[in-house]
Write a structure and sequence with these properties.
By secondary structure, this protein is of the alpha/beta class. The chain contains nine helices and eleven strands. It has a single domain, classed as Class I glutamine amidotransferase (GATase) domain (Rossmann fold). Strand 3, helix 3 and strand 4 form a beta-alpha-beta unit.
Length: about 240
């Protein structure tokens, strides 16, 4: 049986307890043993983190210690998957630029606030995660992020939708969901999920999250099956 830890906490407005419960239920369908942590103290045990297949973050803002952050980074680099949604992963620890480097992006604005209607455009052929999915509407926060150019974009949304300072620029397609690698680890993110009920109102959003978590969690076995070494990443980490 695979093992996953979910870290829930931070700003209550993103309903971390509800999203954690939902994600745990989705993972249990795929034969995961899931443990939910409501503090970050478990991240102080690097060896325990490395025994996992997947780490999911539902933790908006707040602070993480250097040790905790580095341990998650090392565990993911060793092959453990990392996944999260909305501000629960890409607005988790605003002062930790290494966290932003690992996750692939950082929230900077949601022009218009909540209740914005927009379309999520699937990047067909980008990944098995989006296979068979069609573009779909969402009514929620419209996330504007600063993103890593190395990410593999699975879905986008068009900006601007509402009038704000950025409207003076040309229209842009902002990534909504992506994958990337951190060492040997797989990372998945979707900006959907401001409130837990977004996944009920837009079922494709839940499909994206479920498939993304499973994809990320499968990376550990791939690392083992292919004899990929983690030594070079561990040695690099000692330099910083």
């Amino acid at each position: 049986m695979k093992k996953a830890w979910i870290f829930e906490g931070g700003w209550d407005g993103h309903e971390p307890k509800l999203t954690s419960k939902r994600f745990a239920s989705l993972l249990e369908k795929h034969d995961y043993e899931v443990t939910i942590h409501d503090t970050l103290s478990a991240a102080e045990d690097l060896q325990a983190l490395k025994q996992l297949d997947l780490i999911v973050f539902c933790w908006t803002m707040g602070e993480i210690t250097r040790e905790q952050s580095k341990n998650v980074s090392l565990a993911v680099a060793s092959g453990v998957g990392l996944a999260g949604c909305h501000g629960g992963m890409c607005d988790s620890f605003r002062q930790d630029t290494e966290w932003q480097f690992m996750t692939g992006g950082q929230w900077v604005s949601h022009p218009g606030g909540d209740g914005i209607s927009y379309t999520v455009n699937i990047n067909h052929g980008s990944s098995p995660i989006v296979e068979g999915l069609e573009d779909f509407p969402v009514c929620s926060e419209h996330y504007y992020l600063h993103v890593d150019p190395a990410i593999e974009v699975l879905a986008t949304t068009r900006f601007p939708v509402v009038h704000y300072y950025h409207i003076s620029n040309k229209p842009v397609d902002m990534p909504v969901a992506w994958t990337k690698f951190w060492g040997n680890g797989r990372v998945f993110y979707t900006s959907l999920g401001h409130h837990d009920d977004v996944f009920d109102k837009s079922p494709n959003a839940q499909i994206l999250m479920e498939r993304g978590m499973v994809w990320a969690g499968n990376g550990k076995q791939y690392t083992i099956d292919n004899g990929l070494t983690t030594t070079r990443f561990e040695n690099m980490a000692k330099m910083y």
